[in-house]
Design brief:
This protein is an alpha+beta fold. It has one domain: Ribosomal Protein L24e, Chain: T (Roll), CATH 2.30.170. 21% of the residues lie in helices and 25% in strands. It has 1 helix and 4 strands, in the order E-E-E-E-H. It is elongated. The N and C termini lie far apart (60 Å). The mean pLDDT is 85. Bound molecules: zinc ion (ZN). Zinc ion binds next to loops. The site of zinc ion (ZN) has 7 residues, from loops.
């Protein structure tokens, strides 16, 4: 038996762009009833402003 892989890191999907990212690198935001993951601040800000803004500019 060969076990060369010792990194079983889980991946998560970015809430905005659906990109797969390592859980350890994801930005995590706990919403009211679920946890959202983001690949970076850019997507996080997009998501955040989408929550608070119903109108288009
Ligand atoms: Zn993203």
């Amino acid at each position: 038996m060969v076990n060369s892989v010792n990194n079983d890191e889980k991946t998560v999907e970015c809430e905005v762009c659906m990109k797969e990212i390592p859980r350890s690198e994801a930005k995590v935001e706990e919403a009211s009833d679920y946890v959202a993951h983001f690949c970076g601040l850019e997507c996080y800000n997009k998501w955040k402003s989408g929550l608070n803004n119903n109108n288009n500019d």
